[in-house]
Amino acid sequence: MRKINAASIVLLLLGASLLLLAGCASTPESTPVPEPVVGEAEEPEEEAVVELFGDPIRGGLLYDKWWKPLGLDAPEEDHALWATQSTNTRTGDGTWRCKECHGWDYKGADGAYGSGSHFTGFTGVLQFAGGDANEVLAALQGATNSDHDFSSVMDEQALIDLALFITDESMDYSTVAGDDNVALSSDLGTGEDLFADACVECHGPEGLAINFSSVVSDPDYVAAIANGNPWEFMHKMRVGQPGTDMPSSIDNGWTSEEEAAVLAYAQTLPNISLVSQGGLIYDKWWVALGLDEPTEDHPLWATQTTNERSGKDTWRCKECHGWDYQGADGAYGSGSHYTGFTGAFGASTMSTEEIFAWLDGTSNTDHDFSAFFDEAAMTMMATFLQEGTVDMSTYVNEDKSANGDVDTGSASYEIACSRCHGDDGQGINFGDDDDPTYLGDVANGNPWETLHKSANGQPGEGMPSGFNLGWTWQNLADLLAYLQTLPGAGE
Description:
It is built from 19 helices and no strands. It has helices at residues 6-25, 56-65, 98-102, 133-140, 156-169, 188-198, 200-203, 222-228, 230-239, 256-266, 274-289, 317-321, 352-359, 375-387, 406-416, 418-421, 439-445, 447-456, 473-483. The radius of gyration is 38 Å and the shape is elongated.
């Protein structure tokens, strides 16, 4: 057997170590890198949502009639999308109102406008409530349909305000009124208190000061809107009325429960005002009743020769009986209006049956208005003559000056008149450009007419009735005293 010495052992161990090191130093097998899949894009970074800032309450006014808050002329042509529906026959500016397509309840074809004359088939906007206003803004700028681009009629801020109203303030009104339109709230006490705080000043204690209808035969006072269209009532209560300074319940900080309570209370109010409606008939009954104006002279006109007017003017109650209700014994006792006919003030002591006899021709066949007045109209006239006339000589002196307090009248004017007539009474020209007539002119020239219209309103217009604001005849005289301080034409 061969002997292995120590030196050999050392050499063997050294060789094994070198082999081991060589093995460790050898390149290991590489891990394959996966090749990218063709067409697979890297996930983009999420874009930051742009926050929009604006006035959603103004947006609610724009949803109603956008041209009024913007001070623009109403559009005359139909909206571009209107031709895509054939059920709603409205034309012109009505086709541009957001509410006409999407409804006062914001549900479009799925809501109150799902049938009837307002039906278009267009979808609502309630689904955007609580959503991204940028999405709504894009739709208003024509991103989803080029025919729905409102950029040509509203600037960007107006569109932003409208978008913010839809996302931030539109609400499901089924929570405040049921399918039968009846308010779900029973908190009439809260509703009455809030109505008194925010609404009475313009609408009167019973909501009868302003008739939203142009005729007295089918009036639209607060109660009519609340009962017939609670969604419109809620919308206007929450944002206001375009073109007026009507307060917003949102601005007032009312909760949805408080708004529902006001709706419930408004539904309990009356929708008839016999005295003021009769006063409008006394003025121009054909306008007040929505009838064609008469063209021939009144049959009784041939029995007088001093008043040379003709046609429709001969049918006005005031033309025979006077603005002061005294006829030949009052302001129309001389001058171009003189007819010699007696006044109507004496009817205040007559029974309803006696007044009817004068209106239907029983007492005088030539004084027959039954072809124009139905029983409801006759009742209005009778009630006005019984309760709405007064001896105006108590409030108007022989020189036409008013027996009233100017400062008190000024406060009343600010509340009920200035929004239409302006601070100086020249917001409405009753004449024409060549021969203007302003409120100051009428108040000084015909104080009796001014008192009558201040008490009852203007036929066919939304002028508030002083009677229905709760004013007394002395309050009306105070107003007249202030009106007589306003400048007339040329002043």
